[in-house]
Design brief:
- The structure is a single chain.
- With 286 residues, the protein is α+β, with helices and mostly antiparallel strands.
- Helix content is 36%, strand content 18%.
- It is built from 10 helices and 10 strands.
- A 4-stranded antiparallel beta sheet has the order 3-4-5-6.
- The longest helix is centred in the last third of the chain and has 16 residues.
Length: 286
Amino acid sequence: MKRAFHVSFLRMILPLALLLALVLTLPGTAMAESRAYQPTTVEEAVEYLAAQCTAAGMTDDYDIAVWMHDWLIYNADYDETLVEHRPDGVLLYGTGVCESYTLAYSLLLDRMGIPNKFVESPEMEHIWNLVQLDGEWVHVDCTWDDPVPGGAENHSYFGMNDALMSRDHTWDKADLPASTASSLYYPLYQGMACVSSQEELETLLTRYAEAKQTDIEICYIGADASFGLYERFMTWFYENNWKYGLSDCLCSYTGYQLSLTLQYTDPWEKPSDVLDTPVNAPAFSI
């Protein structure tokens, strides 16, 4: 499992009890969970996770679907050897290809009484889930929310409708229910700022910069599959940093989502006239 706690040979001289106590008390780590989570069959794994989800207080179908999705992406990694295709892979061994993620997710949803279907794309050699939440069908691609290498898990492909999913997925829609709802897309559902055009992005960034906002999350929900949110932000930043005293920026992105931490020169006052030269902001990190 990812983020397992590794101990060198020299550290084995530490008292074993102390070492185990340290690891097991780290909240949210895969190792802490793996100590309790040791099923030997897929059926045991499904029952265990159903009990854990219920114990966590998940009662709404949407929250249950997110909880199961998150367990898979944070406790498994994509199998780059392309060996693990069965649900056993991600549920028992912490690794699998898209088929393993999709089959496992379907079993977990079935156990919780949430309707779901498979979406297959021969062209992409890929498979993912179509899930019914709040009476609407939405796409959930656990595999693409767990990119290689690990550590960049996200919700970019949770709750997408057909239009959003079609930006970079292809499939035969003939025998599947239509997915038209937009409100169940995870970023929108969580209240993240969303834009559908370059103009909306620039307006949003300008408003944030004028308010000296530091931590920002933005999601692109337009139809243009080639819309580079990160690249467009870079252009805006270097063209406008001098206007707002922006000195640096830390940036991370996954798919159509962008997370920013803006840094401002302090003290700084916006000039009454246009500056001749912009602030020389150091290159920001990814």
